[in-house]
Amino acid sequence: MLMTAPASVPSSGMTSITEAWHSSLYHVTVIAPWNWNATKEEKRARYADASSAIDNLRRITPDAAYLNEADVYEPNYQVAFWGSHYPELLRIKQKYDPDHLLDCWHCVTSKFQHKED
Length: 117
Hints:
Helices cover 32% and strands 0% of the residues.
């Protein structure tokens, strides 16, 4: 957990981050390390462990996550990462990058959002 709560950081509300972040009391990070020579299956299992470890917290809190430190399997990631900003971000993405030249896992309208590798 961060020592300074996200709610302590003033915001103009003009960034893409979910508005829920600015009223959050804590930023909780779960890690699941693996050995340097872990197999693909072992890595997937560790990711799944980390994801399930945070599920109880998800059940009692609003969807809110910081994209750069979020669960790779974040459910409802559009809301968790961007909140009410998502529709406008989607409009901008479709206008300026309709062919997904710039893309990543769980990005706005990602072509990778359902791929597992």
